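User: Modeling request: complex.
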Amino acid sequence: MPLPPTDPSAVFLNIPYDEEFKELYLAYIVGLYQLGLKPRITSGIPGGERRLDRVFALIRSCRYSIHDLSRVELSVSSPATPRFNMPLELGLAIAWAKLHPKRHTWFLWESTPRRVQKSLSDLDGTDAYIHFGAAEGVMSELRNAFLVDDAPPAPEMLDAYRLIASNVESALAKSGTRNVYAASVFKELCWLSSNFTDLLSGSQI
Amino acid sequence: MARPVARITTPRPTLEEMVRELGIPRARQKELRVIVNEGWKKWRAEKRNGRSSRIKREEKIKNATAAD
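Assistant: Request completed. Predicted assembly structure:
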């Protein structure tokens, strides 16, 4: 069976879709566009297939994946349950990369150093990129993970993030939803990021 | 301990390619374009103001130091 095509610029974002993560979610989107890469999330793909099938198809179509385990924790509501979706999707990406190392590379992200050694000791020997729960951390670690010759300087990436963050409300006001993870909003955030990135790259300020 | 690193050698996708792939309806793109233009104008103005007030502040300090 032929292998599905892989987009060399696509990065699958395995992240929590919750309110507290919104800032980092936007930082990932903006930062990846600043580096000439294209973020992908599961809500961004159409189809009525089983969610797991959609996730795996998305991983296979992306050259890279980022697995942010910083919010793998017990839920507040009863029964207190750990969130296993992100480690499960990480497992799928690891298996895919083991089978096809030239087609996929996965990256582990955390907010706290050495936390992953405690939560997922099977990954001993792999260091996580640490963002310390801040957009600045996401930007600087994206630059460390993805080496791009014409990468903008870190302050410029942060500028782009602030510029886009300050305009998200205007976009949401007309989109008919407050959910920034909705497929339509994700696409619009990508649209804003690519257009603002283009303006910034040609700016003399 | 090791962290994987990716050296990106593929050419940067163009704005047109990225926008086309997103498949946002034209009418909505027009609305988003307004947000981008207004946001960009405001941001540039703030940057310029920030820069000119920083220059003024630095000049003030320089003059005060020279007067001493």
